[in-house]
Amino acid sequence: MSLLSKLIIATGNFGKYKEFEQIINHTADNNFTHEIIFAPDKAKLIVEESGKSYAENAMLKARAWTEKTGLPCLSDDSGLEVEALNGAPGLYSARIIKGTDRDKAEWLLSELDGYENRKARFSAALCLCVPDEYTLVTEGYCYGTIAESQRGFDGFGYDPVFIPDGYTMTFAELGSEIKNNISHRANAFRKICRLLSVNVNIKA
Ligand code: ITT
User: Fold this and answer.
1) How many CB atoms sit inside 10 A of residue 149's CB?
2) 190 three-class SS
3) Which of 47, 116, 136, 202 is 20 to 30 A from 63 via CA?
4) 145: which residues sit within 8 A by CB, 6+ positions away?
5) Model pLDDT for residues 147-186, shown as the tens digit of each residue
6) Which residues pair with 145 in a beta bridge?
7) What is the pLDDT of residues 32-54, one digit of tens each?
8) Catalytic site residue 165?
9) 158 lines ligand 1 (CB under 6 A)
10) SS3 of 72-104
11) How far is the CA of 127 from the centre of ligand 1 (A)?
């Protein structure tokens, strides 16, 4: 039996939604939720991300969607923190410049032009809000380096420039099976499962 009968993935980002679908479907016995719903398929809602941390923004998103739908909602607020840029783009990763994901990745490469230190990490805060029951927040990280150029086409956002530690290819080259086992999002989701005593078996 599943822990939840329905779960709204409280995001407007289809890339995040697809990753959650894969991460959740890899929980042991698929026992987290019976049905996974992409929030925009259920209702129209734009949430202002006015928080000062990933956790605050994740709570704003999950609570707004829970209020709107009355259903359990899982949100994610995340970003890429680059050491040489003092943690930028961080909380502002989605809105640092106007343009496509590839434009943003190109912006990052030009900001890092000439820097030897290319260390970076992805951070994610997840918020699971189950109406009238509980609200849980966890964080997860994935450490790596920024590539010299964009490589690969899988995933979304900064995936074509992020090389996770232990690999030589970018997330966009490695593909979803590997990414969804080691990502900041998968690590934060494992913590939710641990808190709720749901067995996890996220495979590579
Ligand atoms: P929602 O708020 O609707 O969930 P969003 O894309 O605006 O969608 P965020 O405000 O959390 O979400 O911004 C996160 C940004 O950080 C995202 O748009 C990417 O640019 C980047 N990012 C986060 N996780 C990433 C990942 O796994 N791969 C690549 N880029 C990622």
Assistant:
1) 10
2) helix
3) 202
4) 118, 119, 120, 162, 163, 165
5) 999 999 999 999 999 999 999 999 999 999 999 999 999 9
6) 119, 163
7) 898 999 999 999 999 999 999 99
8) no
9) yes
10) CEEEEEEEEEEHHHCCCEHHHCCCCCCCCHHHH
11) 15
